[in-house]
Amino acid sequence: MDQTIKSSMVNLLNYVKENVSFYNKILQNIDVDNSVESVYEALPYMTKAMMRDSGEHINQSINETNAELVVKLTGGTTGEPWNITKTQGESTSYFCMLWKSRLQFGIKPGDHFYQFGGYGDIDGEYTTQQVIVVTPYTELSMFHLNNEVLDRYIELIQQGNGNWFFANPSALYILALRMKDRGIKGIGKIKYVELTGERVYDYQEELIKEVFNCPVSIMYGSREITTISHRCKYGSHHILPHLYIETIDNEEKVIDYQNDKQLGEVVITSFIDKYMPFIKYKTGDYAVIQRKDDCPCGRKGLVFEQLLGRVPAYAEVDGNKINMEITYYLMEKFNRTYGSGIRQFQAIFKKPNIFRFRIVVESPDICEMVCQFYDKELKAVIPNIKVEVEFVDIIERSKRKLNPFIIED
Ligand SMILES: [Zn+2]
Is 79 within the bounds of a domain? Predict the structure, then answer.
């Protein structure tokens, strides 16, 4: 740990020792100030499963001050929902860090941008529209990707005010292929593309760069931590300075990145979160990290040399490509509408048009409701779909993590 990290770590650990009951117990008689590195080392690695059902990770003193809270539901990568809570201030701090880095690409906070989505909660209303315009962004559905719809998106971007694109690489690649077919090079006012949310393949980035004819960067974040890293215009994928990161092997042994280039699971400690602290949090994502102190952009510290994010999956029905994240939105909508209910899910797409869900529910009373809900919601987006639901007691995780999406022939 360098000096700045060390002092941030001392502050954080002293803070959680005072205010968060989980750490209050562990750190009770421990002097954090004098041996912060060994105190940190001895702390347990946290997982989603360990934190999810425990009130011990919530800072009750902030709870009592009626701070304005931002709640996000996670579950996309594992199929297990979890409410992530931050104060408004914490949430803003994360984006400030990211924007400091984004400014070098000539865009500003508040600029209109485009992103993929298309099924979800927009200002409290659920919608399945193909194009949703909200301030400051326009959302394009990734659940109706066919040539006719892609051409509509192209026209919209050509005429629109958005000057950058914040996109899942897999969905943007499908749009980029259509643009290439039509001989488009550069579009509308777009001057920057940021790829996020899943693994970025070189072939995707190359095509996107070619047809959008502008700089392309990568932002890695997670629903739990929000923003984690951003690639600068010199190509270094810098880890943002509000975090301490290490990578560990399958035995939870820290990888000595200076001497060992093996992939490890990314473990994060955030110096921002005080409401729900993330300390030695296992992200489930794998990376190779390295130190880089000579980037021309001026940022020093750790960079990702290699980063394996989640691999997206697409179902195809009647020529429409449908990003399988739709199943995550379904779970989110159900749990938001009915308070809670679905604890875990797995979605299997069986060609040509069957969605088969495996679902763990909190109570068998809601099974009928879940079946009707999934059938109705999916048919609203994909008319010619068959929906099957199987209720199970548990969905086993694989060694790395559960992949909630499976495509079968
Ligand atoms: Zn840099």
Answer: no
Give domain status of residue 347, yes or no.
yes
| Residue 297 Cα to ligand 1 middle (Å) | 4
Residues of the domain holding 334:
314-408
Look at residue 321 and tell me if it is in a domain.
Answer: yes
Expressed in angstroms and rounded, the spacing between residue 71 Cα and the centre of ligand 1 is 32
Residue carrying the six token digits 């590195």:
37
Confidence of residue 358 (pLDDT cuts 50, 70, 90): very high
- Total structural domains in the chain? 1
Q: What is the CATH number of the domain that holds 362?
A: 3.30.300.30
Task: Give residue 68 CA to ligand 1 midpoint distance, Å.
Answer: 34
Q: What is the pLDDT of residues 125-175, one digit of tens each?
A: 666 778 878 888 999 988 878 999 999 999 999 998 899 999 999 999 999
Residue 348 lies in a domain: yes
Put the strands of the sheet holding 216-222 in their side by side order: 131-134, 137-141, 113-117, 164-167, 192-196, 216-222, 226-231, 237-239, 302-308, 281-291, 264-270, 243-248
Instruction: Say how many Å lie between the CA of residue 299 and the centre of ligand 1.
Output: 6
CA 196 to centroid of ligand 1, rounded, Å: 18
